[in-house]
Amino acid sequence: MNRPLHVAIAGATGAVGVEMLKTLERRNFPVASLKLLASARSAGKKMKFRGEELVIEEMTEASFKGVDVALFSAGAGVSKQFRQAVVDAGAVMVDNSSAFRLEDDVPLVVPEVNPEDVKWHKGVIANPNCTTIIMLVAVAPLHRAFGLKRLVASTYQSASGAGAKGMLELLAQTKALLAEAKDMDELAERYRDVLARIDPPKAFGDPIAFNVFPHIDVFQPNGYTKEEMKMVNESRKMLHDPSLRISCTSVRVPSLSSRPRRA
Amino acid sequence: MNRPLHVAIAGATGAVGVEMLKTLERRNFPVASLKLLASARSAGKKMKFRGEELVIEEMTEASFKGVDVALFSAGAGVSKQFRQAVVDAGAVMVDNSSAFRLEDDVPLVVPEVNPEDVKWHKGVIANPNCTTIIMLVAVAPLHRAFGLKRLVASTYQSASGAGAKGMLELLAQTKALLAEAKDMDELAERYRDVLARIDPPKAFGDPIAFNVFPHIDVFQPNGYTKEEMKMVNESRKMLHDPSLRISCTSVRVPSLSSRPRRA
Fold this sequence. Notes:
The structure is a homodimer. Chain A is α/β, with parallel strands linked by helices. The first copy, chain A, has 6 helices and 10 strands; from the N terminus they run βαβββββαββαβαααβ. Chain A has helices at 15-26, 76-88, 130-146, 164-180, 184-197, 226-238; strands at 5-10, 31-38, 46-49, 52-55, 57-58, 69-72, 92-95, 124-126, 150-154, 245-249. In chain A, the strands form 3 sheets. The first copy, chain A, has a 6-stranded parallel sheet with strand order 5-2-1-6-7-8, with helices on both faces. In chain A, strands 3-4 form a two-stranded antiparallel sheet. In chain A, α1 links the parallel β1 and β2. The longest helix of chain A has 17 residues, at 130-146. Residues 258-263 of chain A have low confidence and may be disordered. At the A-B interface, α4 and α5 of A face α4 and α5 of B.
């Protein structure tokens, strides 16, 4: 894989898309050409890559002609919509969404954990949920060396896990609260009132400013959230151990991402 | 214990002392008299109890004459300093600090968990760390019914766990950051610079605004923090099971206390 690749980023304007672009740049990834794809709303805008201005194109089924690798981070719906077009174009879709992670013919890969699984891909390689990645990088070597009996995981997930809108929501709520309260007692006392008067939350179902809640994504019939079950199911798949015992508690906290960078 | 009691609050002006006073009031605790004790700095100030203004007195060894129950929340050092005076006065010290929790002749009690242990007190009854209390109220009935094999606990501890100064620090840091950054990217970029220009932190060794850190109290030789080992040792004592396997991860989060009230 030494020849430079024709790369597309699908969802280039999102919080993750921006990081994909910056990572290609920072790591001197051998890029022969870079195509920035997004919805019609963003088409025509420009983003810089290696000092050059690239124009964002609207993603269509024709976008993937000549592309070797398409990095997708535009939501599960978009990944499903364009999967066939990517495969038909002979490109490999590397998908950051949850769309295909548990499909039997899609490898779920973290390079530090199970790089060998990329070999059996059929046009789509998925990467796991953020919390699964972080946990398995630490835990997979222990599993290989000793074998895991059971995993108990608790997460502390920043507002940015919900993308740019999550960070905006944390900022807007915090600003509103500080503008109206001179100390923490007053802030606590007026918390619900102040938040009721600003834009209703879009990213989170609960207030995020100065709050934590064990509720990321929707609850499943078994009482765990979808976010928690991702860690269970994705870890079992990646460690090739379908009966591994895992319990996860996923909690949203009002923090920045652990390594913030300027977009 | 139906006769009204002569009660003292040692550390009446602290965040916990204030809550003690309000709890006595809210629960109609049978108080024959209430003495508010604090350091010389607070002596002469006034606090309201049941509509009456009480003058705060400087705590001395003579303060406990005629007192039945002395509720202490003024730090471990103060509890140690006045223990003998309280016992000599024939009062019972109910101590919120960590000073005596693991002493063999001091019962460590949560009423919902091990009320029977108050019976063997010798003048001092301790109550456990906040996280131990919350966990054991849920877990003790399971232990009684089935027996625990192992406990894995992760905490999400608000800034108020460090008292009033913890809340002030969270507020001050958050205000400074929002004053200088228009969005989350800028805030992240300038985080260290902004915090370096305001008062250095007193409550926490790490920045608390928009941050989480797995570091509450000092690290012990075994790699756990003192806060984490409190949960281990206090739970073993209260459940009368010195070999119970417990692992705890204590994390500070930039939240309010779970049920904020006005002081």
